[in-house]
Amino acid sequence: MAEPTGSASPAIADRNGRPRLHRTRHDHSVDPFLSAQRDAAQLRVALCGHWRAAHFDDIESALNSLELTGVRRATIESGAAEMDLAGAWLLREFMRRADQAGVEVGFAGADPPMLRLLSRCLAGEAPDETREVHWIAPATAVEEAVEDIGRRTVHGVRDARVALRFLGEVTLGLGRILLHPSRLRPISIARHIYDTGITAVPIVALIAFLISVILAYLGEGELRQYGATILVVDLVTIGVLRELGVLLTAIILAGRSGSAFAAEIGAMQLNEEVDALETIGVDPVEALVVPRLLGLTIALPLLTLVADLIGLAGGGVLCHVLLDMPTAQYLHRAQGAIASTTFWVGIIKAPIFAGLIAMAGCFNGMCVRESSRELGRRTTLAVVQAIFCVILADALFAVLFLRLNI
Questions:
Q1: Which residue range(s) make up the domain with 51?
Q2: What is the number of H-type helices and E-type strands within the chain?
Q3: Does residue 366 sit within a domain?
C-alpha cells in the first residue's frame, strides 16, 4: 500500500521521529481492494474490486496495513466491492480487530449481503422464509373459519411479496447483463434452447398435426350441412395461426419445461447448491434463472413456427382425404384466408408465454425448502401456475386484439 500522505495529528510522528504538532491529520491511501481516508479520530474505508478467495492474502495485507491507533470511529463503504464468503470473512475479522481496539465500526448504507449471510450462518439462524407461524387452535367453527381466512390472507400477502422480490431480482439480473454483456452465459442459454426447443419438436409437431386434423374433421361435419365445406380451410388456417399453434405449444412447454425448471432448481436448493453459489459470490438468479428465461424465450417462437407449419399440413391432408381437395386449391384458399396480421398475432404471443412459463418454473424451484415432498408440490404448482398464466394472457391478448381490430 502507498505511504499515506497529507497532514498529520499530534499522535503521529514524521519520518525522522519528530512529532508533528501543528497540523490536523488527514490521511488518504489507495490500493486495488480498498481506499482509506483518515480525518482526526475518524477513519473512512471504501471497499472496491473483487473480494474473493483468489485474492485472500492481498486483501488481508491491505486490511492489516490500516492503522487503528487513535481512531474512535470507522465507517465502511462496501458498494463498489464484489464479495464472496472469503472476502466477508476477512471483513468480519477486521471489524472484530477494530472492536477489540475500541473503535466503533459502522457502514455507510447497507452492510454487504455476504456479510449478513456469514453472520446468520455463524449464529445458526434459519432464513426468514422458512419460519412458520404457529397458530392457536380455534375454539369454535366461526373462529376456525375466520382464522382460515386470515391465514390464507397472510400467506397470500407473503407469497405476493416473495414473487415481487423474485421479479425484481430477475429484472436486475437482466439489466446487469444488458449493461455488461460479458456476464451473459451463452453456453448455458444454448443448452436450454436445445433442452426446451429442439428436443420438443417431435411432440409439438405430433400434437399440432393431430389437433389440426381434429379441427378440420369436426369443422367439415358441421359446415357440410350448409354447403360451405370450403370454409374448413379458413377454419384450420386462422385457428392454427392465431390461437392453437402458439397456445398448444405453450401448454406443452408448461408441462414439459416448466416442471423441469422447478425440479432442477428445487433439487439444487435441497442439495444446498444455490447457497454454495451465493457463498462463492455468484448470483443464483443470474446463473440459473436468466439463462433458462432467455433460452425458452428463443425456443418457443421457433416451436410455434413449427407447430403452425405442421398444423397447416395436417389440415391440408384431411382436406385432401375428406373433400378430395387438390393441394394447389388448398394452398390458394389458405393464402386468401390469411390476413397480413394473422401469422404475427400468434408469433407475438410466444415470447410473452415463454417468459410466464420460465418465471413460474424458476420461481417455484427457488421456493423449495426442507424436503423432497415440497419439491414435488412446487413442481406440480409450477405447471398449474404456468398453464393458468398462459391461458389468462391469451384471453387478455384476445380482448386487446379485438379492441385494436386486428
A1: 26-123
A2: 15, 5
A3: yes
